[in-house]
Amino acid sequence: MPTHNPHEPEENTPEEIDASKGFESSDVRVSGVLWFLGSLCVLAAVVSLLAYGIGKVINARMAREDGSRSKWTQTVDVRQLGNMPNSPELQNKLAEMTQSFPTPRVQTDDGNQDVADLHAREDLLLSNYTWADQTQGKVRIPIERAMELIAQRGIPVAAAVEEAPLMTGDEKPAIAVPLTSGFARTGYELDQAAAQKVEVGQHK
Description:
Elements: H1 30-66, H2 88-99, H3 112-127, E1 130-133, E2 138-140, H4 143-153, H5 187-203
Antiparallel strand pairs: 1-2
């Protein structure tokens, strides 16, 4: 039969908390805080010593690979030199070098402006009279005038070329009429032309 008396209090029952004060009356254990701080200091010291040792090993290996120190490996404080005086002659020379820098130059606009300049030069040659060879009196004429002259005079007919008989399975090539003139403006140039039209309309 069990000998436990239900009326006797159990030894393992938790201590009743007195909540009448409205706050915790027991203090924090100082020993636990001191153990934590001591462990943290020991860990910081071990990590510092470990990092110092690793740094020493790395520096020693770099020193062996680089060789002995010389005047070329010493660190110089350039702040002692001060600011160098400006030289107008040197600046002008640098400006000349940058202006006459040989091609190909670094493009700053993805080549859009270069293509626009090329087409502008081509328009000048196609739409105006220019000298081809002034010593011989040769002149380039506008393309519109050249088309008029060809329409009036016709194109010189070249001598017929004898064609070899077609081989088995071959066909005579047919020349298709091109759908365009072979020249088209870029999107960059079209945007510039549209912007110029807007500016002209605003000024009017």
